[in-house]
Amino acid sequence: MAGKVKRDYSLVGESTRIAIETGLASAEWYHTDVPRKTMKELMQRSDSPAIRDTAIWLAAILGSAAGGVYFWGTWWCVPFFLAYGVLYASASDSRWHECGHGTAFRTRWINDVVYQIASFMLMRNPVTWRWSHARHHTDTIIVGRDAEIAVMRPPDLLRTALAFTGILDFRYSLPALVRQAFGKLTPDEKSYVPEMEQHKAVIAARWHIAIYIATIALAVFVHSWIPLVLVGGPRLYGTWHMVLTGLLQHIGLADNVVDHRLNSRTVYMNPISRFIYWNMNYHVEHHMFPMVPYHALPRLHELIKHDLPEPNPSMWHAYREVWPVLLRQLKYEDYFLKRELPPTARPYRGEFHEVNMSAAAE
Amino acid sequence: MADWVEACAVDDVDEEDVIRFDHGGRSFAIYRSPDDEFFATDGFCTHEKAHLADGLVMDDIIECPKHNGRFNYKTGQAKGAPVCVNLQIYPVKVEAGKVMIQIA
Ligand code: FES
């Protein structure tokens, strides 16, 4: 298991083989009991909350872009672009996520349109990322299976710090789209995108690249950086909020367990971050019940929190909790933060969870 | 010759909802549509092993609880990623307040 073998984060390597052999891959995960009638109410879809939030989001994007362009060449453009960057490059992540699950809107085509737009803003291939996210839900933080482990062990702190600037993401995402546009998928991508879907990934990448080429051409034509600051560029200066909130989802917690209460984190956040993040701060709840739309997650949280670890009261609290764990993982990568379950919680599948418990922070 | 099997009573399934029915080592999902008709499909999603009875019925659609894959439960048609393989459907009839499904 992971404690004995060095972690291999490729999706076709030694850890993959072990995860499959031990039954960690595609395992049955723990769910808190929620009566069917209640769950049905929580799962109900509605267009109105997401239409309202999307209208605010788009209006704020257009308003901040207009302000930035209007004040271009003066310092006054800076606050507008700071806001624009976060709305473009961070808020799009949660829109991508919710619409990818198909839970944001009741109307399917609106989910799909917002999903495509948000994928473009994030420089993410809408096809490969849909499949990688499905895998993330099947095998959350299972080493060798989960394609979306943000901080691997031992942690690369420089890389993690640079993630806030968006430089690394940009350096990875753009070449990945170019490669995919040329019809090349990596072995990892092929491991989670079914063959019959792979050509769609190539077509989507070509569309994205075509739009970027058109943006560059426009910038050259009008002799201005503005098109690039508005399209693509925000990935460099507006990603920080996505990283600030998103890193907390799983960082420092257990890997190779089949209970989201042990490997995911719920953090209370301020209302602005929750708007940008579309309530994904209720992350244990989201993983346990991905059918529940973002606007119903606070209700779900109230309903099941008796069975979950204590949420972090703030992002600051969560980062203070994570920092010493990361430092210790530099020397001892099996170390992790053990989530305390409430005494009334039902423990689940100890055979997986005990594997790393000796390494856990008490 | 395929057998008709009693799956449940009509009242066991709420309108626009689904329940699980296990029989002969197999699992099925029994649906009641918003216009009060009954339908039956295989119980498990064709993507991975998740029981559709834990999912959400919306009009003609059953949405899988694991990755939100969608099927038309009347035709079995998979409506797009992450479900690519159609769902097996079964004939259904209602007799004397019982929902019967024909299992091959
Ligand atoms: S298991 Fe049903 S959509 Fe993945």
Question: How do the strands and helices of this protein lay out in sequence?
Answer:
The complex is a heterodimer of chains A (362) and B (104).
Chain A: H1 14-22, H2 36-43, H3 48-70, H4 77-89, H5 91-101, H6 108-121, H7 126-138, H8 157-163, H9 167-181, H10 187-192, H11 195-222, H12 226-230, H13 234-237, H14 240-246, H15 260-263, H16 271-277, H17 283-288, H18 297-304, H19 315-331, E1 336-337, H20 350-353, E2 360-361
Parallel strand pairs in A: 1-2
Chain B: E1 3-9, E2 17-23, E3 26-32, E4 38-42, E5 56-58, E6 61-63, E7 70-72, E8 89-90, E9 92-95, E10 98-103
Antiparallel strand pairs in B: 1-10, 2-3, 3-4, 4-8, 5-6, 6-7, 9-10
Bound molecules: FE2/S2 (inorganic) cluster.
Structural notes for this entry:
The complex is a heterodimer of chains A (362) and B (104). With 362 residues, chain A is mostly helical. Chain A has one domain. Chain A has 20 helices and two strands. Chain A is globular and about 65 Å long. The two termini of chain A are 21 Å apart. The radius of gyration of chain B is 13 Å and the shape is globular. Helices cover 0% and strands 45% of the residues of chain B. In chain B, a hairpin with a 2-residue loop joins β9 (92-95) and β10. Chain B is built from no helices and ten strands. With 104 residues, chain B is an all-beta fold. Classes of the chains: A mainly alpha (362), B mainly beta (104). Chain A binds chain B through residues 26, 39-40, 43-45, 101-103, 106, 108, 127, 130-131, 134, 137-138, 194, 196-197, 289-291, and chain B through 17, 47-49, 54-56, 58, 63, 65-68, 70, 79, 81-82, 84. The structure holds FE2/S2 (inorganic) cluster. Residues 45, 47-48, 50, 64, 66-67, 69, 82-83 of chain B line the site of FE2/S2 (inorganic) cluster. The site of FE2/S2 (inorganic) cluster has 10 residues of chain B, from loops.
